[in-house]
Design goal:
about 100 residues
Length: about 100
Amino acid sequence: MNTIVKHTVGFIASIVLTILAVFVTLYTSMELNVKITIIFGFAFIQAAVQLLMFMHLTEGKNGNLQAFKVVFAIIITLITVIGTYWVMQGGHSAHL
């Protein structure tokens, strides 16, 4: 895919995802937890679009290795965030 076309598609996709997140936040009557989950979903999709369209994640001779490194980093980040949340909730519940 041509670089200009790739950047244009990525830019339009980012704008659409941002507008969808704003719409969900301002113009729906969903519960707060549902809104936050949807916004996080849009954020992860937008991060993937950014990595693929602008950061050229899979290009080059080691594209698969770069993709593996990003997936590994995401897994470590999720373990850290979920583990921190779990510990903080457990500590909070113990002191109530």
